[in-house]
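Students often ask why we bother encoding 3D structure as a string. The short answer is that it lets us treat folding as translation between two languages. Here is a chain of 281 residues written in the first language.
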Amino acid sequence: MNTLSNVWIHPKTSATGLLIAIVTIAGVLSQQGINLGHAGSGTVVTLAGALATALLGLLAKDPAQSRATPPSPPLNATSKLGVWALIALLLPLPFMAGCSGTTVAQNIVNWTPALEDAVATVGSTAALLAPADAPIFAAATFGFDTASNLLVAQAKAYLANPSASVLAQIQNQIVTFQQQVNASLFEAARIGDSASRQHALFAVQAVATVVNAMLALVQSVSSKSAVAQMAAHSTIKMAAVERLLDPSQAAQIVAAHYGEALGPARMQVAQAQQDLVLAGF
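And here it is in the second language, the structure alphabet:
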């Protein structure tokens, strides 16, 4: 009886617990390849997990924002650590929902429109730069279009005929592309004119956000030895270019792609970048 009465006495806590359970179960089912059918370009399981995560974000609204609700007592250090650890565990699901090479390949294809838009923006950015900076930027970003087309073609080839050899090609190409983008970030940061530099970094980061999302997906279905080999070819590390990236811009791109709020997207971007750094990228 006490358990049932607590549901009514503490509805927010009970709802939070239920949503956490849904997200946790969705993560386990995704890892086991159980999808319960398709919903749009995703699956019922990933949709349920994403909806539960979004609702958790709404429930986490600061009580101080509402005058009608008295402020809750502050969390102690242990409670705060548990909350943030839980958030870090749950929020990366859209990035890490790969669970199979086929799903990852489909996710790469799904990212294609955003990647094409970002590459197109890079192509048109040179016209916004100072005359002396435009050639430098063009040289630094040369080959983005070819690299993106090759990666998407490989993903489509894997969907048509999944094989270890094609997956190896995708692993090699995503690292090659990411290294190309990281080098371009350094070149953009060296542009002398501040306005030109801002335009250049904004354009390259859009490509970097999509490529890093794809790399996180590929990493999620790669063996330890494959990840180690990929990381060994990653000479320009994430830690070296993080200072050049704008988390807000990356979160906006991820939120738009997955149809979610900026808060969860920001956490997902941070967690995915941390995972890549820990993996040696």
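Translate back mentally: Residues 2-90 form one domain. Keep this in mind for the problem set.
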